[in-house]
Amino acid sequence: MQPANLLLFTLAFAAIAYWLGYTRSRTLATPLGGIRHLKSLPFYYGARAALWCGIPALIILALWAGFQGKVIQTLVIGSLPQEMLPDSDGQASLLLSQISNVASGALPRNFADPAIADAADRLIQLRGQSQLYMNVLVIAVAVLTAFLAWLRIHPRLNARVQVEIILKWLFFACAGLAILTTVGIIFSVAFETLRFFQQISFVDFIFGTHWSPQTALRADQVASQGAFGMIPLFTGTLLISGIAMLVAVPVGLMSAIYLSEYANPKVRGVVKPLLEMLAGIPTVVYGFFAALTVAPFISDLAASFGIEASSQSALAAGAVMGIMIIPFVSSLSDDVINAVPQSLRDGSLALGATQSETMKKVVFPAALPGIMGGILLAVSRAIGETMIVVMAAGLAANLTANPLETVTTVTVQIVTLLTGDQEFDSAKTLAAFALGAMLFVVTLVLNIIALHIVRKYREQYD
Question: What's the pTM?
Answer without folding.
Answer: 0.70
